[in-house]
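Why run this: before we spend reagent on co-expression, it is cheaper to look at a predicted model of the complex and decide which construct boundaries make sense. The entries below are exactly what would go into the expression plan.
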Amino acid sequence: MIVPPADRNTDPNFPGQPQLHDDTRFAAGKIAIFQYATVIIFLFLISGFWRLQIQSPEIYAEKAEQNRIKSRPLLAPRGRILDRDGRVIVANHVSSTLLLTRENMKPEDLKPIAEGLDLNLPDLQAKAARGGPKYRAIRLKEELSPADLAFVNSHRDVFPELDIISSQPRLYPQDGMMAHVIGYTGEVTQAELDSTDFAKYKQGDIVGQFGIERQYNDALTGTDGQQRVEVDNRGQVREEFKDGTIPAVAGKDLQLTIDLDLQAVAEIAMDGKNGAVVALDPRNGEILAMVSRPTFDPNKFVGHIKASDWNAINANPDHPLMNRAIQAQFAPGSTFKPVVALAALETGTIDENTPVHCPGYVVLYGHTYHCWEKKGHGTVSLHNGIVHSCDVYFYTVGSRMGIDDLALYAKMVGFGQPTGVDLPGEVSGGVPSPEEVLHTYHRKWYAGETPSVAIGQGDLKVTPIQLARAIGGIAMGGVWHVPHLVKNDAIAAKTTIWPVDPKHVQDVVDGMWGCINEAGTGAQSVIPGLDFCGKTGSAQLASVDVAKAAAANHETGLKDNAWFVGFAPRRNPEIVVVALFEHGVHGNLAGPIVRDVVKAYFDKKTRIQTWLQQKTAVTAGLAKVSTLDLPQPAHN
Amino acid sequence: MSRTLAPRDIDWTLLIIVLLICAVGVLQIYSATLGTESHSSWWKQIFYIAGGLVLMWIVIPSDYHAFLHHVPLMYLGGTVALLGTFVLGEQTFGSRRWIPIGHTGIHLQVSEFVKLVIILLVARFLTDLKKDDLELGEMLKLAGLVLVPAALVLAQPDLGTALTYVAVLAGGIFIAGLHWKYIAIVVLGAALMIPVGLHFAKDYQRARLTSFLDSDQDPQGAGYQVLQSKTAIGSGGMFGKGVTKGTQAQLHFLPVPGKDFIFSAFAEEHGFVGVVVVLALYFVMIMRIVQNAQTAPERAGMYICMGVAALLLSHILINVGMVAGLMPVTGIPLPFMSAGGSSIWTSFLALGLVNNVRLRRFVN
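The model came back. Tokens follow.
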């Protein structure tokens, strides 16, 4: 059924029935005003876009670019540390570093971030508050654990200020091997930044803080690059740009003079002992091995050391961070006697046959000095004096020579001053002399002190590296090199030459040979088939402070320190080794340590020579074969 | 009373312009949501537009006088539904605007549909006066009727939508003929209300106002959206960065680039030229609606058309003005462009009303 259109004139159901007042003409003017208003509104809107898009689009284009283009640091790996044969001692491993971008950081986020990532909140706040441009990201945490990564990735929305970049932190040898030589890296401290050494570094940089890492920090440190990336509003990287990227330049590899084979032998020999071993090549000063015990794990310092680890290291009374090879200063004991012997010969105080009678003691300046051998050595000349380490012989010779010459020769072999080894923190030891006593204690030298110095006791203090250098130089006939850890011809060429009579050197060296090979005090260190020379020594702790502290604590610390210095071969020596065994009672306990290292050196040399001979033989054989005009094997 | 719809009954100019705007909207939604989890919204938007056309097609043939007749019922229903959003509504972005429809995943924004009720209410009220001038008492009565749902919407809180109600009211009152003295009183009253309004305003609303007055202040906070929007628009320059190439929208620096800030995303990718073209389309759309008001057979139809024109104009002014930093931030959609079913359907229903009036232009 079709319903006709409703007629509003008759249908009362319709509202707005036609009336006089239902025409729309009255509104025409107002509608026109509405139209004008519409035109004005649209012009107003367009004017806004005109201002933004036509008048100053560059400003906003730049803002848009600033929003999306960020530059992230590309962290340069440090150079590797290699041994003398090119074997890797310290490498890097691939890890992740957490960055904080302060541009879009909200201060209230720091607390949950610290909690989520197990960071110290005050440290974090201090980092976030420190100076420097806001666009430069701050390194918050190194070596992120899987849990850290999960935390950051799951909180991208909440903490857009966090970013993860790849980094290559240090991987050090395990169990503290070579820890004192290598050192460790860490975030540059404010104190370091204030010093001139670290002028080119900025906050957050990882720098070497100890050992080789510190000494050669500039060479090992690479140059961080920069990468331009496109990020979204949460800081997530969408694209990595090729152009505008400055690649990171890795630090230079550093080749040490250390021989890992010898180092390992020395490390094992020092297991469970406190002390140090230094092995030098006396021909050029190259350090072949350097051990200090107790040691520490430098891996714990990578990134940021935990407070508990740091406290444990600091609370250790044996000071594991001390590199005893260059920082322990003790009286050299009888290892000083070869120096005294050479000085006495050179000054003409004695000749090699000058006899001294040893009844087990000697009275000098109204005071009785005892020999370690209470029965006495009978009549002793220079050779036997060294072989049997006769104290009476050296008391006598030393007091005849006088303290001035003793001190002069002690200084000439390098005691009392740093060797110049390329490690930070080397100490100089001390040589007692009338001037020094006057200067330090404001008193005169007592003649009675001289015999003690002549047997390497008293205030004479040397470091293991000084002793190795001194004896090595004597064995070389009076040529001393600067001990060094990094292969460097310029340093190797630097020498201190003292024109000594070769005959005198030979007498002293022969004495040291006899010490081992003629049933002397070092007889147990004999190496069959090798001209191994050496000298034992035992000395109380030279540092009065340490001795007093040890006594106060009723420690066993006042047992003598055991020294041993050895070199081989007898003529033209190739290696000189010093071992310091703290509280090792007597030098014959340090002897086996030196013997093992020296033996390892020559075993290796033999091995290499044998291999070279075999290689030569094989090459020669191949050459013969090729002359038979047979088909050539393919070269690869 | 229903009759078959003939092609000549449709205002094709208006429909084609609106469909062009819709097409631009779909393209922009596609671009702005590329690679995000809401990327499906571009084809959902097509579905909404198709639904809107169907709604329009249903509305056109039914005589608008029938709608006017049922205004009291619709007004009551709309108010109850607005109250219902406080009970059933789901809170999104800190505001209760949407009612979930079963488990369809569709959320209806009641305040959108109430706009139509307001238009019809104003039209009927003013038509029923049968006078050429509006008395203050009558105006206040109408204002009171409109302000009840407006207050409910404001309490959601949704300032922008409430403002569009007031715009429809103001448009109606203006056409009805209010003496300039009354206009002065209203303006004065409104000016006096500003401090009171600020007192009751939410913190974020105050922050938006402050940031509008100085958008460089606190660039990470309230001013962030405006700053990013202006950056997007400005960086678009004359010709824009190209579809899907707008970095501000693609990298999410621009907030809700498919919805409230769609025009900003559009301006970034299509530049000033695109902006002028689309604003011209909107301008022609408004003018065409006004033309339908001029040809309306009687006052009710005229008021309906002018109500729709005032509604859409206020939407455009508030939204486009907001993204360009010309107006404070109020979250309302841009008609026919912003993604969202409620907005699209309301807009098409409003268009249906206009067509309905046009259809009967030769009645008298």
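Residues 1-12, 16-20 of chain A have pLDDT under 50 and may be disordered. Residues 228 and 244 of chain A are 6 Å apart (CA to CA). Bring this page to Monday's planning discussion.
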